[in-house]
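During the second half of the funding period, the structural biology subgroup turned its attention to how the target accommodates small molecules. The most pressing case was fe (iii) ion, which had performed well in the primary screen but for which no bound structure existed. We therefore specified the complex as follows and requested a full 3D prediction, including the ligand pose.
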Amino acid sequence: MLTVKQIPVLNDNYIYLIVDEKTQTSACVDPAISEPVIETLEKENLSLDFILNTHHHFDHVGANIELKKKYSCKIIGNEKDSKRIPGIDIKLNEGDFFDIGKSKCKIFDVSGHTKGHIAFYFMEENLIFCGDTLFSFGCGRLFEGSPAQMVQSLLKIRSLPDHTKVYCAHEYTLNNANFALSLDPFNEKLKKKVTEIESKRSRNIPTIPCNLGDEKNFNPFLMFDNKDYLKRIGLNDLNDEESFKIIREMKDNF
Ligand code: ZN
Ligand code: FE
C-alpha cells in the first residue's frame, strides 16, 4: 500500500510525499522547496529514499540538492533531460518500471510542457503523478513542445482507467474550470462542477487529486477529438492537433 501526503507550497504548487507502507520506503515528488518536506518527514519519523522529478522547472526541482545532501536520497528523472535535472542519479525512459519499496510505477514520456517531461504511474494503486502535463480541467502551457506532442502525451494519460487518481503539481482548478465554462456556458453538469470547486477553494480545500473519469468528461484539453463538444464550442472541421492548438491558445489568452 502506498500513502500519499500532499504538501501545498508557494502560491499553488503541490509537493507529494509518498510512502510504501510495507517497507517504509519514501519518495518525494517534485520538491520545489525543502523546509515543508523536512518538516513532514520529521513529523512522520521518516527518512527520504528517493526524489521523483517530472520535469526540470525550478518549482519542481528547487530542493533536489538540499534534500539529497541531508538524506543521501537518489534522484530519479528523465534520461533525455538529465542535463537539466539537478543531482540526477537514476535515469529513466518511457516504458521503464521503478519500485518504491513494493509499489511499482511505470514511466510515461508526456512531453509538451517541456521537452523532457515524464509521469509516474502506480499501476496497482491506480494513481499518476503527472507534473505540469494534465491539470484538473486544464493542461500545462506549451513552453518547449508542439501541440502534436502534447496531444500524444494527453492521450497516454487518457487511456488509463476512469478511477485513476490524478496528482498534478498545481492547484489551477478554479481558473481552468472557469475557462472550460466560458467555452461551454450552457453545460449544466459543468456549472455544477464549478460551484463545487468554488466552494472547496473558498474553504481552502485542495481539488487535487482529481478523478481521471471526470477529466475525460469535462477537461477541454482531453476533448480535442470529441465532435459533439467541438461543435458546441464552435470548432468544426479541424483535426485533433488543430483543435487542441486553438483551445490552448484560447486558454493562454483567458
Ligand atoms: Zn513546469
Ligand atoms: Fe510547475
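Two results from this model are relevant to the next phase. The mean pLDDT is 98. The first strand starts at residue 2 and ends at 9.
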